[in-house]
Amino acid sequence: MSENFAVVTERLVKRFGDFVAVDHVSLEVEKGEIFGFLGPNGAGKSTTIRMLCGLLTPTEGRGSVNGLDIATQPEEIRRVIGYMSQKFSLYDDLTAEENIDFFAGMYGVPRDQRPERKRYVLEMANLSERRGALTCTLSGGWKQRLALGCAILHDPPVLFLDEPTSGVDPIARQAFWELIRQFSKTGHTVFVSTHYMDEAEYCHRLALMYRGKVIALGTPQELKQSLTSQQLFRLETADPLATMRALEGDGNIHSAVFGGGLHVAVAGGDRAEDRIRQKLAAQSIEVRRLEKIEPTMEDVFVATIEEEERKAA
C-alpha cells in the first residue's frame, strides 16, 4: 500500500451475524489530511474506525494505518495512533493533570519527555489554569479538550476521533475544531467522524457513509458541485408539511425541511421556479419566499441519500 497514505482500506467488510455493518469500503487518506466521515447514526462510521484502530477484526477486505496491517498488526497500530471515542473516556475522579499523567504512562511517553508533553497539552487545550480541577467539574467542552490532549500525548502520526463533539455546544465545538486544525498543520493525519453537517466544511476531504457504504467521496466543494444538475431553492410558506405534500409526485422535484422552511431541489429543464409556483398555486398555497440558493453539505447529503433510496427502490 502506498507510502503517501496514512490510512488505506480496500473493500473492507464487517459483519455481525447476518447484519452487514460495513459494506466493501475503500478509502485512501493522505498524510496530514483532515478526513471526515459524515453520516447519520448507524451508518457504519464507528465500526469502520474501530477496525482501523485494531479494536475489531475485519470480516473481509484489507486495510493499513501508518503502514501497519489492521488484521495482523492491531497491537502495533494501537501503540502509534491516538483515539478518542464518542463517550468521554477519562477519569472523573482525577484532576485534569492527573488524567494527563496517567495517560502519559499508558501511552509509554518517556519519563524525561513527560513534563514537556504535559505542558504542551495543557497549553494547547488552554487548561493550564484548570489543571488542578477535578475532571467531573469541567464543562463538556473542557472535557473534550482534555480528552483530545490525552489522545495526542504520545504525538501519534494518525489521530482517530469518533464523533468527538457529540453533545457539545456550538461555541465549544468551534474551539475544538480549531485544535484539530492546529494538529493537522503540524503534519499529523486526523480521521474524524461526525453527523454535524457544518463540521464537514472543516475537513479537507469527506466520505459520506450510509447503511455501511460510502456513497460519495471528495472535497466539500466537489461534493457541492455534484449537485449542478439540480437547481436549489429556499422556500417558505405558512404550512411546510402541506407544501411538501403538494410537491410530491413529481420525480424531478424533491424537498426537505430546513430551519423554518424548505430546501427544494429541481432537476432538469428550465423554468424551475415557475414549476414550483404552479404546483403550489394549484393547492392554494401562498408562497412567502422563494429564492435560488447555493447548496450546503446538508443538501448534498440529503440529495445523495435520496438517490440511494431511489436506486434501492
Could you characterize the architecture of this molecule?
There is one protein chain. The chain has 313 residues and is an alpha/beta fold. 34% of the residues lie in helices and 29% in strands. The chain has ten helices and 14 strands. The chain has helices at 45-52, 74-80, 96-106, 114-124, 140-151, 170-185, 220-225, 240-247, 272-282, 297-312, and strands at 5-16, 19-30, 34-38, 60-65, 68-69, 81-84, 158-162, 189-194, 205-210, 213-218, 230-237, 253-258, 261-267, 287-292. The strands form three sheets. The protein has a six-stranded mixed beta sheet with strand order 6-7-8-3-9-10, with helices on both faces. A four-stranded antiparallel beta sheet has the order 2-1-4-5, covered by helices on one side. Strand 4 (60-65) and strand 5 (68-69) form a beta hairpin. The two termini are 37 Å apart.
Which terms would index this structure?
four-stranded antiparallel β-sheet, 14 strands, alpha/beta, 313 residues, six-stranded mixed β-sheet
